[in-house]
Design a protein that fits this description.
The chain has about 70 residues and is mainly beta. The protein is built from 1 helix and 5 strands, in the order E-E-E-E-E-H.
Length: about 70
């Protein structure tokens, strides 16, 4: 399991989920690697060589970045 801390522009992102306009993502990756996961495709945007479920990037500036909203 690879765990690293990163800084992010925002933890709030516009979404295509029908029941929500925005989602909160305080981290990137996963530690579970569920075979039915809908988010596995996100790995291609991370630059990680590890398999999905073998890494997590924690957005350490999340408390300060919540006022910046991607997509607005």
């Amino acid at each position: 399991m690879k765990i690293q801390e990163i800084k992010s522009k925002s933890i709030i992102s516009k979404t295509g989920i029908p029941s929500a306009d925005y989602v909160i993502n305080p981290y990137v990756g996963c530690i579970h690697s569920c075979f039915y996961c809908y988010a596995r495709f996100m790995k291609r945007f991370t630059g990680h060589k590890e398999n999905w479920g073998d890494f997590i990037d924690i957005k350490i500036n999340a408390p300060r970045s919540h006022t910046s909203i991607e997509g607005l």
